[in-house]
Write a structure and sequence with these properties.
The structure holds 2 protein chains of 2 kinds.
Chain A: E1 4-7, E2 10-13, E3 19-25, E4 31-37, E5 43-50, E6 53-57, E7 64-70, E8 73-78, E9 87-94, E10 105-106, E11 110-114
Parallel strand pairs in A: 2-11
Antiparallel strand pairs in A: 1-3, 3-8, 4-5, 4-9, 5-6, 7-8, 9-10, 9-11
Chain B: E1 4-7, E2 10-14, E3 19-25, E4 30-38, E5 44-51, E6 56-59, E7 62-67, E8 72-77, E9 86-94, E10 98-101, E11 105-110
Parallel strand pairs in B: 2-11
Antiparallel strand pairs in B: 1-3, 3-8, 4-5, 4-9, 6-7, 7-8, 9-10, 9-11
The chains are: A mainly beta, B mainly beta.
Chain lengths: ~120, ~110
């Protein structure tokens, strides 16, 4: 059983399109995250939800909108895709928020290519 | 602003040698430091987590040390194997529970 699963694994689309990436975790965790890994391989936090509440919203264009229908799911919708959105997007989860011993569990990533 | 640097960016070692990977961070006010492994096309796997009050953590052939005051951590992998080939990322938790990642150490273990 995959602990953190995200779909699709690959996403190729044209500029201007709207697309969604889905994430589900079956670990019973309360906190979920979206990270972006750019071409230089830096991983940066985009959003974090704890018990379906948004708690981190980094400087991300408002074309990106996360949605958490329940604790086990955190989806990412992207409007009006741009070339610079091309990256690998990782979903992650942790048991709780704000504890010093929290390990993160990552999904396998979604490689988004905007043409 | 927290910045994490990992040196060297890439290294190759013959099988059986010990691996030493270095991580440094600019702000010592951290909650913990984690070492992750990333395989091509896959997500990150957490290897070791050292809380700010701890000096080291060990798991099998892996040992990670933390010197918070100097802003350094080292990951040791004993008796490397070809299966250890991967990218190893260091990340620190700081501020409002944010993680700052390094760019990783890309390791190739030559059989």
């Amino acid at each position: 059983d995959t602990a953190v699963s995200q779909t699709p694994k690959y996403l190729v689309t044209q500029m201007g399109n709207d697309k969604s990436i889905k994430c589900e975790q079956n670990l019973g965790h309360d906190t979920m995250y979206w990270y972006k890994q750019d071409s230089k391989k830096f991983l940066k936090i985009m959003f974090s939800y704890n018990n379906k509440e948004l708690i981190i919203n980094e400087t991300v264009p408002n074309r990106f909108s996360p949605k958490s229908p329940d604790k086990a799911h955190l989806n990412l919708h992207i409007n009006s895709l741009e070339l610079g959105d091309s990256a690998v997007y990782f979903c992650a989860s942790s048991q709780d928020w704000g504890k010093t011993n929290e390990k993160l569990f990552f999904g396998s990533g979604t490689q988004l290519s905007v043409l | 602003k927290q910045e994490v640097t990992q040196i060297p960016a890439a290294l190759s070692v013959p099988e059986g040698e010990n691996l030493v990977l270095n991580c440094s961070f600019t702000d010592s006010a951290i909650y913990n430091l984690q070492w992750f492994r990333q395989d091509p096309g896959k997500g990150l796997t957490s290897l070791l987590l050292i809380q700010s009050s701890q000096r080291e953590q060990t798991s099998g052939r892996l040992n990670a040390s933390l010197d918070k005051s100097s802003g350094r951590s080292t990951l040791y992998i004993a008796a490397s194997q070809p299966g250890d080939s991967a990218t190893y990322l260091c990340a620190v938790t700081y501020g409002n529970n944010r993680l700052a990642f390094g760019k990783g150490n890309q390791v190739v273990v030559i059989p």
